[in-house]
Design goal:
Two copies of one chain form a homodimer. By secondary structure, chain A is an alpha+beta fold. The first copy, chain A, has ten helices and 30 strands. In chain A, a hairpin with a 2-residue loop joins strand 20 and strand 21. The longest helix of chain A has 17 residues.
């Protein structure tokens, strides 16, 4: 059995901590199961649970290109199916299956289970995932789904409506999305279960679906022709057209940590970062990743998040509508996490058509950049701490605290951290940002260095 | 009649907008009386009112050294009595009177009225101030005070208890500070009035009081021996020992804008800066001076302030206790306003005993620094916008966008803005901050410049 963890999401639901280059699943906010003093990210938590249940060796993560570095920094060298661009869940599942077939050698009859990356759950969940393979065989259904037994008539979740109840599985009669309170109560009476968003099927099914769009289940082919697949969800394209669906249910902890309301309940502490709360605060969680303090006084049922991208002050119930509000925001992410370090925007200027962008950049010990140049900007580096080597037009220069260097447009340069190295980079020119870059080589050891006499 | 505006205050009551180098009275938050689209500061508002009432020409402002530049930038070239260090209101009133005598040539029998800098009031207030001189003469009292007629039984203000009520004035029987509701109601029945914190007396009175500490009412002498005066309030040292006090009352708008609760009522709009409020917010004011957005959702009766020094999220009633909470904070101010421009700390690093401090500095057109050097640090300047001239060890250098310059320890340098000029300054060394500076000359035109051939 193969497992696909779908690591998508726009990053807007946990604004301001998440952004397009920093998705909620990578932020270290939830309690580590084993060490409650440590916080881990959602993806780290679910991966640990996959390892524990023996499923990890056949698991892959499907993510966009921009997420590859952070996944590797959090999980090490795991299998990642890369989406060349964001489409929807049907194409994402298709390219996942292509990866499983081409890279991992899976066969037509092998079973694949697709899991969301952000369930907050416990071991029983993964045992039920394993059980899905069995019920797929026993029932001869096209797709097996997974549900959690409801503990209350939630209006926020989707429900699976049961038909005939077998010994090992449930026939699926239909679905209901986010019912109102009354309908939710009736659904509980009808033994409906919460839809966990898990699909399990045989690889052959996706082979047929891909062929319908003229594509083979081949990773490289699909990567190069990803645009042939429509922007449509797996639910619409596959699930709703399916004639025979079954489901298994499990009883136990299961929560969607997709909103501040649900996430703050699992934080384990009321505050993270530099915060002061007075004694009149009630049921309030404060997360602060800025250097300046956050002071809360007399707040009730609130979540306060101060992050590089913005500040959120929300009544907890109201916070679930954040996507509607932040849709108005069109700002470049202020903070990016990479495999080799982090980037934080600290100043932007645009005046009379002249642009500057200053970022504080941290490079982890031993990591290096590519050898590259920029056509339309100069860059000024000011070293803040640690030690690094720079190669500028073939000449090696050592940078230590207080070193400053000015890199002209078209000058080739690369940097490698000898110890953890922090510096300010000020970009000045007609085009600042990430686009104006031409790479000569990615590998530090291959950069030509002049020998000075 | 001379007017002293006491511009003291620790700056903690309107945290995070106010700090030790940025007091509440200078922040442009209140509506301008004449142009409601413009915001002005409390001191600008009260100074305009003094001008309107004809009192400004005999008015001085008493403030600490650090406030001189911002007062001049907001009010122009006004008379300022400088406190060499912060003591309390008795020493502050004494040095004010010394200034009025030495610099403005006032005589023993001249009348001085001391006013707080932050009343939110109307013209009638200043007419009553003028009236104080008359009642001081008619009553032959030592001190005349001013009260506002209460409009409700406030528990937050102090009260003046009236004795015999004359035609032109009230004999003062005593004082009550912040009574409870019941007591406040009784005070209203007794015709008590709110104490506006205004004292009026003849210069001779302070002459005697200063002599008791071995000091003459001479500005330079008092400036040099300010420590001889005890750290005690004018209330304790003078008012409570006084045998004959009278008061005048006025009817009209009078508010203490000293807390977020009262200040936000006079803002005239619900938000300042980059903010988004959803429709579920009620009675909420948001002030944001940061570049990143503040989003508020479903907040009720709250004040949210995001400033360079920190972030406050407070229930309005609770916000009046802010001094107790922020007393725990011991941070250097992140933002400073000067006569010549502004300074904003944007990054601080301290690692293994090495310090760096990066500030974004703006110099107004035509303004310049002194010619100076630092013993224990180097400085790297990166020009962001505008144009400036620098003199470095006698050599003139032009700085435009993208210019970077490294100033070694002990290298003499000065900078003058040709157009409004913004740059990043990174300090690196054993001592970063404002202390390590040796000035050669303050005047740009006197800096020796080498002539290059």
């Amino acid at each position: 059995m193969y497992i696909v963890l779908l690591s998508g999401g726009s990053g807007k639901r946990l604004w301001p901590l998440s952004n397009d280059l920093r998705s909620k699943q990578y932020i270290k906010l939830v309690n580590d199961e084993e060490d409650t003093k440590e916080k881990c990210s959602m993806i780290q938590r679910v991966w640990k649970q996959l390892e524990k249940s023996g499923l990890a060796s056949h698991s892959i993560i499907t993510a966009s290109k921009g997420q590859v570095e952070i996944i590797k920094s959090q999980l090490g060298n795991v299998d990642i199916a890369v989406e060349p661009n964001r489409r929807d869940t049907f194409p994402a599942v298709a390219i996942s299956c292509a990866y499983i077939k081409s890279v991992m050698g899976a066969k037509k009859d092998d079973v694949v289970a697709v899991l969301p990356v952000d369930p907050y759950t416990e071991d029983a969940y993964f045992e039920t995932v394993k059980h899905l393979e069995k019920i797929l065989t026993v029932s001869d259904a096209e797709i097996a789904l997974m549900g959690a037994e409801p503990t209350y008539p939630s209006e926020k979740y989707g429900y699976i409506i049961p038909g005939k109840q077998g010994k090992e599985y449930i026939e699926v009669k239909g679905f209901v999305e986010k019912p109102d309170k009354e309908r939710a109560k009736k659904l509980l009476d009808e033994h409906a279960i919460w839809n966990c968003g898990v699909f399990c099927f045989r690889l052959g099914l996706m082979e047929e679906k891909a062929e319908a769009y003229g594509l083979k289940l081949d990773y490289h082919e699909m990567f190069n022709h990803y645009d042939k697949l429509p922007k449509i969800s797996f639910d619409y394209e596959v699930l709703e057209k399916s004639e025979h669906l079954v489901a298994a249910s499990f009883k136990g902890l299961w929560k969607d940590l997709g909103t501040w309301n649900t996430l703050t309940e699992e934080m384990g502490s009321d505050s993270i970062g530099n915060t002061i709360m007075d004694k009149q605060c009630e049921n309030t969680q404060v997360i602060n990743e800025l250097d300046i303090p956050v002071v809360t006084m007399g707040t009730k049922n609130m979540v306060v998040v101060a992050a590089y991208d913005g500040i959120l002050v929300a009544d907890k119930n109201q916070s679930s509508y954040i996507k509607d509000v932040t849709a108005e925001l069109h700002m470049a992410p202020m903070y990016e996490e990479r495999r080799w370090g982090t980037l934080k925007s600290i100043d932007r200027n645009s005046k009379d058509g002249e642009f500057t962008l200053t970022r504080k950049i941290k490079i982890f010990k031993g990591k290096s950049s590519s050898y590259h140049y920029h056509e339309h900007r100069i860059e000024i580096f000011t070293a803040l701490s640690g030690e690094a080597e720079m190669i500028l037009e073939g000449v090696k220069i050592t940078l230590t605290q207080g070193s400053a260097i000015c890199i002209q447009a078209n000058q080739k340069h690369a940097i490698q951290a000898i110890t953890e190295f922090e510096y300010l980079e000020t970009q000045v020119g007609a085009a600042v940002g990430n686009d104006d870059i031409t790479r000569i080589t990615f590998n530090w050891d291959e950069i030509p260095v002049a020998v000075l006499n």
